[in-house]
């Protein structure tokens, strides 16, 4: 490998490392954003912070992620943003098992 090729490789590697670092920070920031019932996507899915349907909450929906027992958890239906575990939306599907 010539000296010029090595220099180019190091520049590209450094840029890629910085890009990966900042993209991870952006994804974590997005996941920590709570869904507001007044958001357009929340209105479209009729999201409510407290479920109007007995026994059907975000905590027992197949779209929920995160640790069981947390008050707010990431939801796949809202691109990983946080929803209230006691919440509900119209695409609720019972968690298998």
From TrEMBL:
An MF annotation (GO) of this entry: electron transfer activity
Signal peptide (UniProt feature, chain positions): none
Keywords, sorted A to Z: 4Fe-4S, Electron transport, Iron, Iron-sulfur, Metal-binding, Transport
One GO BP: aerobic electron transport chain
PROSITE patterns, per database record: HIPIP (PS51373), TAT (PS51318)
The High potential iron-sulfur proteins family profile domain, residue ranges: 29-97
Highest taxon, organism lineage: Bacteria
Family: Belongs to the high-potential iron-sulfur protein (HiPIP) family.
Purpose of the protein: Specific class of high-redox-potential 4Fe-4S ferredoxins. Functions in anaerobic electron transport in most purple and in some other photosynthetic bacteria and in at least one genus (Paracoccus) of halophilic, denitrifying bacteria.
Subunit structure, interactors included: Homodimer.
Protein's UniProt name: High-potential iron-sulfur protein
């Amino acid at each position: 490998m010539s000296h010029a090729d090595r220099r180019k490789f190091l520049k590209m590697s450094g840029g890629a490392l910085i890009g990966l670092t900042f993209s991870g920070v952006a994804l974590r920031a997005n996941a920590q954003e709570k869904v507001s019932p007044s958001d357009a996507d929340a209105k479209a899915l009729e999201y409510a912070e407290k479920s109007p349907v007995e026994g059907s909450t975000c905590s027992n929906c197949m779209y929920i992620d995160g640790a069981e027992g947390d008050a707010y958890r990431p939801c796949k239906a809202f691109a990983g943003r946080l929803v209230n575990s006691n919440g509900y939306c119209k695409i609720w599907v019972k968690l298998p098992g």
